[in-house]
Write a structure and sequence with these properties.
- This protein has 762 residues and is mostly helical.
- The chain is built from 19 helices and no strands.
- The chain has one domain.
- Helices cover 82% and strands 0% of the residues.
Length: 762
């Protein structure tokens, strides 16, 4: 940082941000001790819990072995992505006195090392967070025997551990890289963001396929065919389903939010660096770090205040949202103070960065409320879906699709409004249209930073869902009393909504981060070759429009392959559960099913799809950029962002609404003769809707978040190479064409591999 000539306040502030990151990690350790001091319950409960724990550990171990070879390959690729292009002016400034080749070596090693660190941190967030969720679920089930508030606090605080790991490790990694590399930090941070994003994609795809294959298979055979309750111990797929909640929702979402957290820092610092070049002010680089530090502190306060009234009932959603608003209020006040005292000398005034950051907090709250409206059990869309079950599965599917389609429209309007706010706030700032453009993009990046200020709260809300769901399953299988089961059912219903809310926030943050990265892409290309995108990225240019069309198609292909993978794996689970139902004594409850076999089936099925889907996201932008150049690649990115956002929100909200409509029917008094409650035709129609929605809301939809950012980061990394070597001669053009064709062939092979028929169960 020495070459940046930081003031004493700025130097101290950066180290305080690092200390705040460590404080967040210490808070996670404190909460872990609180959670683990609670009892696990009866031997029957511990037996079910142990099966869940062993299955989850086995899945994550196998997943790690599957992805390590690709991580090693990409580490080398990221080193070369710096080493084969000229060093940036900022890298030369930071490491002045060294030769260009030495600077290339240092920054190349820095990017590769940051990539490994981002991947490891993302892995730690997912794995540690999931293991704490597993530790908490049985304790929540035990606490539900005596207190609604006790069960709520254990579930939420266990989820907060994951949230604080996300906050703490994300801020720690970003700050350490900034301290070491200074103005050259964006070069290394690209690796950090890509590492976290890639691991999130793996965990999202693999966990999503696993959890929904088990869930769909268990529901279709158990509920629809055999008329068994949720999580009935006679259903062989129950343990696989409960394991899936953890590897999909806990590990997958934690890694997903973590990479959004990383990527918004990357884009803010890249764009802040552009403004530093224009204005000479370091504040553009320091302010995002200060905002992130504030977010950690406010999340600590807000999450710890989540509690309900004593007794056997309460309003969990109100308590959780109260904590969320508390953190939001604290953050906004501190943003104002920091901006007022620290950003007063920057062009445009202190109030502009404050307003764009505050707009991000407001965006998170609005998306929270919007998602709650379309997926909550108390609102019109879910009640309409419930009513549509009167006339069968077809109308149930149609009403859920309609709700999801409407939800995605309002979500994109809200996100567009947030971007428009940044345009209005920074309108007229700068000496030229190009400078004003840079200020606007920085404002968008600050909106993303502000939106993920409450990451601790968001991840806590998400992990709360599978913890409550698992607790409910343990209660069913261990035969807990009705009062306890009702508490867990209430928490489970709230958990469905909180999961949907955090998916909405994750998708919104993905779009904001992608727009920021899109701006970074234009900025970086312009710095290498000012003529490359001097006229911007115009869709009226046929080649750019071709890129836009292909980009719009990629999320649909990705989602198709992910849903097809769930369908194939679920069909295997259906056959396996049917087979075990025929074993004498299983349906009578005298013989215990083989729970391990469905766990093994779903684990193997999920791992087979990981590399194919990840390679689709990695190779497509490289191939298109090499063949059609940076202008078309820019159009490609725009298409991915627009199409991906619309599709992701549609799938997430439709699936969440179907799930909660089913929950409403299951909460009714059981009376199949009058078509009410569990076992009725209405219930069976709702189960069909839920099983259709499961791979949408928990596999394909959430996986689009990291996919969008993987594509943007890959494009940002490869763009300097494309610009540097284009027009380098006929031989070079031939080499590039051959590489691009080889990559396209690889993508095609990955698609074909994902369409193969499932292997027969031996």
């Amino acid at each position: 940082m020495s070459t940046m000539e930081l003031t004493l306040f700025e130097t101290v502030a950066v180290w305080l941000v690092l200390a705040t990151a460590i404080l967040g990690l210490l808070y996670a350790i404190f909460l872990r001790r609180q959670v683990l001091q609670h009892p696990k319950g009866t031997p029957e409960m511990v037996e079910v819990w142990d099966a869940i724990r062993i299955g989850a550990d086995a899945y994550l171990g196998r997943q790690l072995r599957s992805i390590l070879p690709l991580i090693a390959l990409l580490t080398l690729a990221l080193f070369l992505s710096v080493y084969i292009v000229p060093p940036t002016p900022e890298a030369l400034e930071r490491f002045h006195g060294l030769s260009r080749s030495q600077v290339q070596l240092i920054v190349g090693l820095g990017r590769a090392g940051a990539f490994v660190m981002g991947a490891v941190f993302s892995l730690l967030v997912g794995q540690i967070g999931m293991r704490m969720a597993v530790q908490a679920n049985v304790r929540v089930a035990e606490a539900s025997k005596t207190s609604f508030n006790g069960a709520l606090r254990i579930a939420y605080r266990a989820g907060t551990i994951t949230g604080m790991l996300t906050d703490g490790l994300g801020l720690f990694g970003g700050t350490i890289i900034f301290i070491i590399f200074g103005v050259a930090a964006p070069d290394a941070l690209l690796g950090f963001g890509f590492g976290g994003t890639l691991l999130a994609l793996f965990m999202r795809v693999g966990g999503g396929i696993y959890t929904k294959a088990a869930d769909v298979g268990a529901d279709l055979v158990g509920k629809v065919e055999a008329d068994l309750p949720e999580d009935d111990p006679r259903n062989a797929a129950v343990i696989a389903d409960l394991v899936g909640d953890n590897v999909g929702d806990c590990a997958g979402m934690a890694a997903d939010i973590f990479e959004s957290y990383e990527v918004t820092i990357v884009s803010a610092l890249i764009l802040g660096l552009a403004l530093r070049t224009i204005t000479g002010h370091n504040e553009w680089l320091i302010y995002p770090l200060l905002v992130r530090g504030i977010g950690v502190l406010s999340s600590i306060v807000g999450t710890y205040l989540v509690k309900s009234e004593p007794g056997m009932s309460g309003d969990a959603m109100a308590a959780i949202f109260r904590g969320f608003l508390t953190s939001a209020a604290i953050s906004t006040v501190l943003f104002f103070i920091v901006a007022f005292f620290y950003m007063r000398e920057v062009p445009g005034g202190w109030w502009r960065p404050f307003l764009t950051t505050a707009a991000g907090v407001l965006l998170a709250i609005v998306i929270d409320r919007l998602t709650d409206y379309f997926t909550g059990t108390h609102t019109a869309p879910v009640k309409e879906i419930k009513k549509s079950t009167d006339t069968g599965p077809a109308t149930t599917i149609l009403s859920g699709m309609a709700a999801g389609m409407e939800a995605t429209v309002w979500a994109i309007v809200v996100i567009a409004g947030a971007i428009l706010a940044s345009i209005l706030i920074y309108s007229g700032v700068g000496q030229s249209p190009a400078e004003e453009f840079a200020f606007v993009l920085y404002g968008v990046a600050l909106t993303g930073i502000g939106m993920l200020t409450l990451t601790g709260n968001n991840v806590a809300m998400d992990s709360f869902g599978p913890i409550a769901d698992n607790a409910n399953g343990i209660g069913e299988m261990a035969g807990l009393p009705p009062e306890a089961r009702q508490i867990m059912a209430d928490l489970d219903a709230v958990g469905n909504t909180t999961k949907a809310i955090t998916k909405g926030i994750a998708i919104g943050s993905a779009v904001i981060a992608a727009v920021s990265l899109f701006g970074s892409y234009i900025t970086d290309v312009g710095r290498i070759d000012p003529t490359a995108l001097s006229a911007g990225i115009r869709v009226s240019v046929p080649l750019v429009f071709v890129g836009f069309l292909i980009g719009g198609a990629v999320p649909w292909m990705f989602s198709s392959l992910a849903i097809r993978a769930v369908s194939r794996a679920a069909s295997q689970i259906v056959k396996e559960v049917r087979r075990q139902f025929k074993i004498p004594g299983v349906m009578e409850g005298k013989v215990k099913p083989d729970y391990a076999r469905p766990v093994s089936i779903t684990t193997i099925a999920a791992q087979k799809e990981l590399i194919n889907l990840a390679w689709l996201a990695i190779a497509t932008p490289i191939a298109l950029g090499l063949l059609l150049q940076v202008e078309a690649l820019g159009g490609f990115l725009a298409g991915v962002i627009l199409s991906g956002q619309l599709l992701a929100v549609f799938m997430a909200d439709a699936g969440g609404a179907w799930d909660n409509a089913k929950k409403l029917i299951e909460d009714e008094p059981k009376d199949p003769a009058n078509n009410i409650g569990k076992g009725s035709d209405r219930h069976k129609a709702s189960v069909v809707g839920d099983t259709v929605g499961d791979p949408l809301k928990d596999t394909a939809g959430p996986a689009l978040n990291p996919m969008i950012k993987v594509i943007n980061l890959v494009s940002l990394i490869v763009a300097p190479i494309i610009v540097t070597y284009r027009g380098a001669g006929t031989t070079q053009d031939i080499v590039i064409a051959v590489v691009a064709i080889a990559l396209l062939a690889t993508v095609w092979l990955a698609i074909r591999a994902s369409k193969r028929e499932p292997e027969a169960i031996v």
